[in-house]
Specification:
- This protein has a 5-stranded parallel beta sheet with strand order 2-3-4-1-5.
- The termini are far apart.
- It folds into 2 domains: 2-64, no CATH class; 72-240, P-loop containing nucleotide triphosphate hydrolases (Rossmann fold, 3-Layer(aba) Sandwich).
- The protein is 54% helix and 10% strand.
- Strand 3 (164-168), helix 10 and strand 4 (195-200) form a beta-alpha-beta unit.
- By secondary structure, the chain is an alpha/beta fold.
- Helix 3 packs antiparallel against helix 4 (37-64), helix 4 packs antiparallel against helix 7 and helix 8 (136-145) crosses helix 9 (150-160).
- The chain is built from 13 helices and 5 strands.
- Residues 99-229 form the AAA+ ATPase domain.
- Belongs to the IS21/IS1162 putative ATP-binding protein family.
- It holds the Pfam family IstB_IS21.
- One of its GO terms (biological process) is DNA replication.
- Keywords: ATP-binding, Nucleotide-binding.
Length: 251
């Protein structure tokens, strides 16, 4: 028992958290199955590596800030106006991400833009990419406060190292010239280094109305549309078609 406790303390000092709690069980199993010393060590290290992979995945998912509905399995591709299943499967291969392509999901509210963008972001995170989901409002708050707020500064630094950034509901909020400038410089900084998925119910021609500056809008579009797939979604709002009522359970 003294040897076991010593090994546990050594594991703690080496920060082998997963191994610390499994040493005894794995040692008993090794003895019962007659495992070699090398096989026993391999299983110990496998246990630690698997735990680290799991915790790293959890950290990256938390940092991504995904909305509740982010599983592409829930997306209904059967309806004619939705993204066909074959095209969705092609997007899930993420070759566009490796090639620094952007995706613009355009269409009315409720047509699945957020679910698709969040699902692709989650898929990227699962496959080891640094991917983040932010609404346009959240992103603008980060850009406005990064020089005065520690949390915003850390999030901004995280985004500048991203391989994929989802900007949800782009052009939903009006911006003054200073904010439009900050947004352009953010996109310009990451141009051809980071892929973007943008969801919007405004056509690129309408963006100038929100940004209020034709020169900035033209420069922004020049960068975003250079390597870009525009996916037009249509149809009625999924939320309205599947809305729930508080009266449904009343007899």
């Amino acid at each position: 028992m003294e040897t076991l406790e010593t090994i546990k303390k050594q594991c703690q000092l080496l920060r082998l958290g997963a191994v610390t709690g499994k040493v005894e069980a794995l040692a008993d199993r090794a003895a019962a199955e007659g495992l070699s010393y090398l096989e026993f060590i391999r299983q110990l290290l496998d246990s630690e590596l698997e735990d680290r992979r799991r915790r790293d995945q959890q950290r990256r998912e938390k940092a991504a800030c995904l909305p509740l509905n982010h599983h592409l399995e829930q997306y209904d591709s059967s309806r004619e106006e939705r993204l066909p299943k074959a095209r969705l499967e092609q997007l899930k291969e993420l070759t566009w991400l490796d090639q620094n392509y952007n995706i613009i999901l355009m269409g009315p509210s409720g047509t699945g833009k957020t679910m698709l963008s969040a699902g692709l972001c989650y898929h990227a995170v699962k496959n080891g990419y640094r991917a983040y989901f932010r609404t346009m409002e959240q992103l603008m708050t980060i850009l406005r406060t990064k020089d005065i707020a520690t949390v915003a500064r850390a999030d901004y630094a995280r985004l500048t190292r991203a391989q994929l950034i989802v900007i949800d509901d782009m052009m939903m909020i009006s911006q003054n010239k200073m904010e439009a400038n900050a947004f352009f410089h953010f996109i310009n900084t990451l141009h051809e280094k980071t892929s973007f998925i943008i969801t919007t119910n405004k056509s690129p021609k309408q963006w100038v109305e929100i940004l209020g500056d034709e020169v900035i809008t033209t420069a922004l579009l020049d960068r975003l549309l250079y390597r870009c797939e525009i996916i037009q979604l249509a149809g009625e709002s999924y939320r309205m078609q599947n809305r729930k009522s508080i009266f449904e359970t009343i007899g």
